[in-house]
Amino acid sequence: MADFVLSCCSTADLTKEHFQQRDISYICFHYALDGVDYPDDLGETMPFDKFYAAMANGAETRTSQVNISEFVDYFTPFLEQGKDILHVCLSSGLSGVSNSAENAARIVRERYPDRKIYIVDSLGASSGYGLLMDRLADLRDEGVSIDGVRDWAEAHKLELHHWFFSTDLTFYVKGGRISKVAGVFGGLLDICPLLNMDNLGRLSPRSKIRGKKRVMKEIVARMEAHAQGGLDYSGKCYISQSACYDDARAVADALRAEGYTIASHSYGHLTYGDISPERLASDAQKWNDQIAAVIGETDVLLYPFGSDIAGVEAYKGAKFDTLYGLGFRYFCNVDSAEHWVQIHDGYVRQGRRNIDGYRMYYQSNLLDDLFDTKTVWDDARPTPVPKI
């Protein structure tokens, strides 16, 4: 277990269950509807359907960030437990919350001088910010220290892309991002702005596109243009939506139409080989109910951490029955010492070799048949992760 707390704001827009399963702590922002204050507690106090219905019916809305006192109260119990803290904030280009967190950190550092309290400005928002948190949780679970996770976040946070589009300009007008006149003409012309986060963490309009179908096609094209490896990208992509389920599903369908294969990486990024059959069944069902319901079914499972449910023998037992029953037919180990394929009656297994910094640093002999790692390794590069 890590000796530090990985933390963020509720504006990372992941579910409470996801935060819990990834062991990510969070502190809630606040919002108000028609003058009534609520915590941004991931839909617990006010379900999302009621929240969006109120907005659609014209409710006056505003948000407020976490203040210094709230951060001090939030950080203190962790420090009292002897834990260090890495807190990642909503972009400073959208909110002043990182300043509040920094000021609170200065206060608690004086009270707990032996503890580390790091604040990172994500320069991101919503589920893009959430995807960054998910990656940091991966690093922590791989054994990377709090300093290593903090350094990775600072070095790589701008590599993450956040793309947004909207089919309703009402709230851009209310928020002062566009004029009332522009909003009226934009609505008449069916303008859907395509935006992303710039390198200062600000929401930046990139294109004004007529029609929902066209902007969906363009957002997929931007992903293909910027994803590492293009169509060969094998990492995670989060698709989030605000009361527009059908649009989110259409984007997922457009990705498939462009040639992407969408796979499951579990719901909570759990080590399927180690957990109980009951916990695996619960996690897999959440994937099916909450993720597949949006992006569509998939028959491909990429095991988190390469944690297969069996050795080289054929699959059998409760875990396999659960996964097979949910439609999975291709089972991929992502951290094999050697690549291999097994073709069975009704399903396929494969193992892939990771070609990454860890493998090149600690197990370069496993890559000798592919290339000489000495010719590509930079000795100035920090060790990727502590040796396991």
Give a structural overview:
The protein has 388 residues and is α/β, with parallel strands linked by helices. Among the domains are: 4-29 and 65-158, 3-Layer(aba) Sandwich (Rossmann fold), CATH 3.40.50.10440; 163-257, Hypothetical Protein Tm841, Chain: A,domain 3 (2-Layer Sandwich), CATH 3.30.1180.10. The protein has 13 helices and 14 strands. The protein has helices at 16-21, 48-56, 68-80, 97-111, 126-141, 146-156, 170-174, 180-188, 212-226, 245-257, 277-295, 318-325, 357-362; strands at 4-9, 25-27, 30-33, 36-39, 61-64, 84-89, 117-121, 163-165, 191-197, 203-210, 300-302, 330-333, 340-344, 347-351. The strands form four sheets. It has a four-stranded parallel sheet, sandwiched between helices. α5 (126-141) runs antiparallel to α6 (146-156) and α9 (212-226) packs across α10. The longest helix is centred in the last third of the chain and has 19 residues, at 277-295. It is globular.
